[in-house]
Design a protein that fits this description.
The chain is an all-alpha fold. The longest helix is centred in the middle third of the chain and has 31 residues.
């Protein structure tokens, strides 16, 4: 029984990456180089997915409107409703700025690279995940400031810069299109080397974790929150993530989605983007308050990566095996 519940190697590697980022966060020139490496790894991941996926599969992902509607509803309706409930119940056990941070977290779009990587590891519908996560991130540029303005009564809602949108297109969409264009020549090779795609999946996640958590540590993550406050925040984040994971699993099954679609819905619908959350917070909130407001997001971001890594491995381990061909 103990062996059954032992964390897998990738989850332990994630924990080790968090510890490393806490003790030796990337700084200065090394941080710049490692950030560039992380961006290249993510771009390579999307290039390989583009080269591996057939045109028919990509078109099916684009037209899977029911799946996309469910993911967007969870991201921009269910999450904000839960954030409002947490903020309403927070007085007395959670500081006001952290409660506000939880509500801000709930208004953010989904992640892109980790949602797709975990969907791929778990054996889910990768084309649908690419379309759904990318749409969530792009719509979040406009919907998150609007939700923050409506729910948090922030004066003069802002938006992310055009450069942020260009970065999403350049880092994710263009490599995927390039992979699709080169698929007739390299698609077979990529299909025969699936382990390479798996290594890039995991490597991109580990690099994002190290960069994101290291930056949080440098900006005073452990100085701004005492241990008792940290414990409360961890419990709240765990509860929120568990609730959304349960809701996405139940809804996808109740609405008759396939196993592959369920995986995409669970991983795209349960994530919140640190990469989008920090720049939006810098626009919407006074600089003196940004640190505490984004702190719940920093914690949730790390918890969701580690929890979803374990969940992805669980899905992969339970994947149905293809039937053997009949003997001749």
């Amino acid at each position: 029984m103990a062996f059954r519940f032992r964390p897998d190697t990738f989850t332990l590697t994630l924990v080790g990456t968090v510890v490393l980022a806490s003790l030796l966060p990337a700084r200065g020139t090394f941080a710049d180089y490692f950030h560039d490496f992380s961006n290249v790894a993510i771009a390579l991941l999307f290039f390989l997915h583009g080269a591996r996926l057939s045109r028919e599969a990509v078109f099916a992902g684009l037209t899977h409107w029911r799946l996309h509607l469910l993911v967007l509803s969870v991201t921009f309706l269910l999450f904000p409703a839960l954030g409002l409930a947490i903020k309403a119940l927070a007085p007395g056990w959670l500081p006001d700025r952290l409660a506000l941070g939880m509500l801000y977290l709930a208004c953010l779009p989904s992640t892109v690279q980790s949602s797709i990587a975990f969907t791929s590891i778990a054996g889910g519908n990768v084309p649908a995940a690419i379309c759904s996560a990318s749409a969530s991130n792009l719509l979040g540029v406009f919907l998150t400031p609007l939700l923050v303005t409506l729910l948090m009564q922030v004066d003069g809602g802002g938006t992310m810069s055009l450069g942020s949108i260009e970065a999403i297109v350049a880092q994710l969409l263009l490599p995927f299109i390039a992979g699709q264009m080169l698929r007739p020549w390299i698609g077979g090779w990529v299909g025969r080397h699936r382990r390479l795609v798996g290594l890039v999946d995991r490597g991109s996640i580990l690099s994002v974790v190290y960069v994101a958590f290291g930056e949080a540590v440098i900006h005073g993550l452990w100085r701004q929150l005492p241990l008792d406050g940290l414990a409360v925040m961890v419990v709240v984040c765990l509860f929120l993530l568990a609730l959304v994971l349960t809701a996405t699993t139940f809804l996808s099954r109740a609405l008759g989605f396939s196993r592959e679609d369920e995986i995409a819905i669970v991983f795209c619908g349960s994530k919140k983007s640190l990469a989008s959350g920090v720049p939006i917070a810098n626009v919407l909130f006074p600089s003196a308050e940004v640190g505490l407001i984004v702190l719940p997001l920093m914690l949730f971001h790390q918890i969701q990566l580690m929890a979803c890594a374990a969940l992805a491995r669980r899905y992969a381990a339970r994947a149905p095996t293809a039937p053997l061909p009949p003997e001749s």
